[in-house]
Amino acid sequence: MSYLFDFEKLNGGYVAFGGNLKGRKIFGKGKIKTGKLDFDDVYFVKELKFNLFSVSQRCDKKNSVFFTNTEYLVLSPNFKLPDESQVLLRVPRENN
Length: 96
Known about the structure:
This is Ribonuclease H-like domain-containing protein. The chain is mostly beta strands. It folds into two domains: 49 residues, no CATH class; 38 residues, no CATH class. The chain is 6% helix and 31% strand. The chain has one helix and seven strands, in the order E-E-E-E-E-H-E-E. Strands 1-4-5 form a three-stranded antiparallel beta sheet, with no helix packed on it. A two-stranded antiparallel ribbon has the order 2-3. A hairpin with a 4-residue loop joins strand 4 and strand 5. The relative contact order is 0.14.
């Protein structure tokens, strides 16, 4: 919780992940700033041992996200693909 600022406690709400249909309680939400990226509406879930990152939320903010076998990169909104011929598959994003 120490990375969160503008933290506000929430009374209610659950998040489900990893096939657990019951989910875990959301205790609050806040913001995180990294110097280059801002994350709003970051939920604090005590039982969660890992940070979850919403790719669709980053894309909603006009960032692109690039995955490799060892890492992922969040690219600036003005990133341009240097060679369009390297794109092997393109699928439109809908309803997420």
